Amino acid sequence: MFYNAVILVDRLLGLNAETVGLAALPLSGVFGQTCILNALVYAGGAISLLPSFDTSATLDAIARDRVTYIASAPAILRDVLLPAGATTTLNVCIAGGAVGPGEGNGLLTQIEVPVLMAYGRVETSPIAAINPRHAPRHGSIGLPIWGTDIRLVNPDGEAVAPGDTGEIIVRGHNVMKGYYRQAEATAAVLRDGWLHTGDMVRQDEDGYLYLVESGPNVADRAAQALRRNRQER
Predict the structure, then answer these.
(1) CATH of the domain at 130
(2) DSSP string, 63-103
(3) pLDDT for 112-159, tens place per residue?
(4) Tens-digit pLDDT profile for residues 199-219
(5) Is the pLDDT of residue 233 over 70?
């Protein structure tokens, strides 16, 4: 998780000691911990803390603390970024978490602040792909982050043709080693180093990824597979 934050700071966002991030997500969750807490600690920046999410209090915090960076879910960003004057101090935002197909597209066209759509799972620490700051693409969940391999495969595990939809599987430094003391559940989703996410994605000619259909929670799929295996014994 910390190395995921290092990549965000050094290779993707350019966060630094002047950055003020807003904790608009629980810092105990993988998204908030990686993209806010770990990233800002590593960058030497500051964090504006909220006791809980409230649109009015959040807008007040952005103005009071001169927030420059937010990472949150599209619905929260929509409430925060669309009001007039809310984006005066902001430089960049990440939209992620529970992102469905097409979510966040409106944010990219309605405000001036770059909103970088990202993709990942808890099991990928969490970011596996994100739109580059210099060239975000409308409707896309971005490009694989540095050090991460991504493949789109059919149900037989074979690579799909360019432009076709397939399950996105992920391999890299950000992929979990496994579920704690759950070897069978781990084996159900992690095979030969590849995490099988269950999400259906297509890829354009430039490598940008587009979420077509979100699969069930990876951990839930692993638990279901574990139950099936035990029933068959």
Answers:
(1) 3.40.50.12780
(2) HHHT--EEEE-HHHHHHHHSSTTTTSS--EEEE-SSPPTTT
(3) 788 899 999 999 999 999 999 999 998 899 999 999 999 999 999 999
(4) 999 999 999 999 999 988 776
(5) no
> Is the pTM here over 0.85, yes or no?
yes
- In angstroms, rounded to a whole number, what is the distance separating the alpha carbons of residues 178 and 86? 41
Contact at 8 Å (CB) between 119 and 128? yes
Predicted confidence (pLDDT) at residue 46 exceeds the cutoff of 90: yes
* Domains: count for the chain: 1
Placement of tokens 């890299």 in the chain:
172
Q: Which element (helix H / strand E) includes 81?
A: helix 74-81
Q: Which token pair is 148?
A: 């991460």
Q: Which domain holds residue 107?
A: 2-232
Q: Which residues pair with 170 in a beta bridge?
A: 150, 195
